[in-house]
Amino acid sequence: MRVVVADDQPVVRHGFAAILDAAPDIAVVGSAADGRELLAAVAAHAPDVAVVDVRMPVLDGIAATARITRDHPATRVLVLTTFDLDEYVYDALQAGASGFLLKDVPAARLVEGVRAVADGSMLLGPNVTRRLVQDVATRTPDRTPVDGLDALTPREHEVLLAVARGLSNAEVAAELWVTEQTVKTHVAAVLRKLGRRDRVQLVIAAYESGLVG
């Protein structure tokens, strides 16, 4: 798994890179001190995951994330933030980020997070998901139609609602009495039918369409 790390603080950048590089299945192929360097590193190395600080000089993490998801859709973005109530988290997710972690995250959790994002999972806890949904409500008070909802099967609809509540694949499987692999298959189908990038985008779509809230 190829990873690029971007943070304007050298100690944080090098520390995260060292932690990730020590994992047997991860190779840090580039690093960046600002958004412009990040875009150059992604273009040069085509990483599977970019670990991106929200606040960076020259080009901030949100703008850089939007550019990455537009120009390099195969690269998923994991956003770093100082506080879990960071006002920029929602904007980063809207820009295409696949999730976020706090900067004081334990080493093992950072590695797990990068693996999860690379696998297409949503890296948001239930509490964060609820705050994200509430933020969507204040920013987009008028619900908007979401293409593809009518194409979902009843089971896929159930899975979408469960994902929108912030449940993991294991939690959805336990709630619906199916296997995790079955849940993964349903999630993949929902993503395809709604034309969404990842689980974060499914949460946003579910709320904006009025399915939850």
Automatic annotation (TrEMBL):
Q: Which SMART domains match?
A: HTH_LUXR, REC
HTH luxR-type domain residues: 145-210
- Keywords, A to Z? DNA-binding, Phosphoprotein, Transcription, Transcription regulation
Which ranges carry the Response regulatory domain?
Answer: 2-118
Q: What CDD domains does the annotation carry?
A: LuxR_C_like, REC_NarL-like
- Could you tell me which residues carry 4-aspartylphosphate? 53
Query: Does the keyword Iron feature in the UniProt annotation?
Result: no
Matching entries from Pfam families are given as: GerE, Response_reg
Instruction: Give the top-rank taxon of the lineage listed in the UniProt record for this protein.
Output: Bacteria
A molecular function annotated in GO for this UniProt entry is: DNA binding
| GO process terms (BP) | phosphorelay signal transduction system; regulation of DNA-templated transcription
The UniProt record lists the keyword Transcription: yes
Q: Tell me the SUPFAM superfamilies matching this sequence.
A: C-terminal effector domain of the bipartite response regulators, CheY-like
User: What's the protein called, per UniProt?
Assistant: LuxR family transcriptional regulator
Provenance organism: Actinotalea ferrariae CF5-4
